[in-house]
Design goal:
Layout: H1 8-11, H2 15-33, H3 39-69, H4 73-76, H5 90-104, H6 123-149, H7 158-179, H8 186-191, H9 197-203, H10 210-218, H11 221-237, H12 242-252, H13 259-263
Helix pairs in contact: 2-3, 3-5, 3-6, 3-7, 6-7, 7-12
Keywords: Cell membrane, Hydrolase, Membrane, Metal-binding, Metalloprotease, Protease, Transmembrane, Transmembrane helix, Zinc
Main location: membrane
Subcellular location: Cell membrane
Length: 265
């Protein structure tokens, strides 16, 4: 019933998103076929494009779930067009996640779309709205790792395989970080409706700093080791080895080379 209140333009896919998807498709083809003279450049554009597409779909999942939960304002705000320029904080949603991929090979949670929570009724709906975004990253991770856990790598070119492995790493890290029950992240949004009013009130001031707290913790060597050991364990269970993700990251950063990856199969 809520979709009846939307104008047609509120649901039309943005040319900006279509352009990003087109770049991803073309550079993915170039990576697969070896058409590009500089394979690293093609991998860089393919992974970056696919990462931005996943960020857009992450936010779209929040918005779409909120729409069906009762917040019809998401249409007028442009959240259903998949246009990243419509997000509340374009810098936090797109620029910073891409920079963190380039610098550290980690899937930084993006965000955000502004949901008018007062329009949503029911704790389960609030939790589902928060969970919808990181579940999109989980789905992306399943798709990226499918050739590995299905043992369907025959005929898959090396560069494309490494690009998929690195992209899977980004999706898994994004899903795990987003699901952490830290104020300001989606994981906390899942459990927040079930907390008492006093607890929510005490925790609320921490929300703007939640992501900073997480990354401050990741600077602690012991915490960092446990986190990435967990990531490696998940990827190994899906058929992706550490050498695949390492060399995928090195290939992505085409401006530097690693002899180990240059000779790896």
């Amino acid at each position: 019933m809520t979709t009846a209140h939307l104008r047609r333009g509120d649901r039309r896919i943005s040319p900006v998103f279509l352009g990003i998807a087109a770049v991803t498709a073309v550079t993915g083809w170039a990576t697969w076929t070896g058409f590009a003279e500089q394979p690293g450049v093609a991998v860089f554009l393919f992974v970056t494009g696919a990462w931005i597409v996943s960020l857009c779909l992450h936010e779209y999942a929040h918005a779409r779930t909120a729409l069906h939960g009762g917040d019809i304002s998401v249409g007028a705000k442009g959240y259903l067009t998949l246009n990243p320029l419509k997000y509340t904080h374009a810098l936090l949603s797109i620029v910073l996640p891409v920079l963190f991929v380039i610098m550290g090979g980690i899937g930084l949670p993006g965000g955000a779309v502004f949901i008018e929570r007062g329009r949503i009724r029911g704790r389960w709906r609030h939790s589902l709205i928060s969970a919808a975004g990181p579940l999109t990253n989980v789905l992306f991770a399943v798709v990226c790792t499918a050739p590995f856990w299905l043992d369907a790598l025959d005929g898959v070119p090396r560069d494309f395989r490494l690009a998929l492995a690195f992209l899977a790493l980004l999706q898994v890290t994004a899903a795990i970080l987003n699901f952490l029950p830290v104020p300001g992240l989606d994981g906390y949004g899942v459990i927040e409706p079930w907390l008492s009013y006093n607890v929510r009130r005490q925790v609320e001031p921490l929300a703007p700093f939640g992501l900073l707290i997480v990354f401050a913790l990741l600077w602690i060597p012991a915490v960092n080791g446990v986190f990435f050991d967990a990531i490696d364990a998940i990827l190994r269970s899906l058929g992706i080895g550490e050498i695949d993700t390492y060399c995928g990251f090195e290939l992505y950063r085409f401006w530097q080379t690693d002899e180990l990856c240059a000779v790896s199969p």
